[in-house]
Amino acid sequence: MKKLSLLFFVVLFSVLTINAQKFKFGHIDGNAVYKKMPEVQKADTIYTAYVKALEDQIKGMQEEYNMKAKDYQDNEATLSEILKETKIDELKSLGERIQKFQISAQEDAIKKQNEIYEPIRKKFNDALKNVAEKYGYKFIIDKYTLLYYDDADDVTGLVEKELGIN
Fold it and tell me: Is 31's pLDDT higher than 80?
């Protein structure tokens, strides 16, 4: 597998070197541009509030569980066997509901995150594509994935301009 990967990179490098005149490369600080987009800041606020509401719901359920567990422990000696069983069943049921809600909340948070951020990612990617087409770039690479780059082909400003960011 390593040999195939090495072979792939050697072939890719060879093709790119041979055809260097045909390809125009650019790089971008994608994370910095993405964070500057006003939509991201609004999405962050919405997503944070959504997650906080879920966390508050879980916290309330856990507080209810803790109160019932403490009540049971405080009064266990005076409870009849049937009442002990009922309270234990109630605690188990509440514990299971909390676990199910936590799983459901995580899934909902992921869905909400995708729902909120996907249009922003699409807009960002469309701007990259537009810049590439408009200025003749065949490749635009995020600069943090490179070991070396020359600032001469930095397209960050072009993409920001395309997005209307100053």
Answer: yes
Q: Which of 24, 36, 52 is nearest to 152 (CA)?
A: 24
Report the alpha-carbon angle 26-145-162, nearest 5: 40
pLDDT of residue 141: 87
Question: For the whole model, what pTM was predicted?
Answer: 0.71
The rounded distance, in Å, linking the Cα atoms of 140 and 154 is: 9
Interacting residues of 119 by C-beta distance below 8 A, sequence separation 6+: 39
Strand positions, DSSP E, the chain: 25-28, 139-142
Q: How far is CA 111 from CA 20, 41, 74, in A?
A: 42, 18, 42
Q: Which CATH fold topology does 25-163 show?
A: Protein Binding, DinI Protein; Chain A (3.30.910)
Q: Which residues 6+ apart lie within 8 Å of 68 measured at CB?
A: 87, 90, 91, 94
CB 131 within 8 A of CB 162: yes
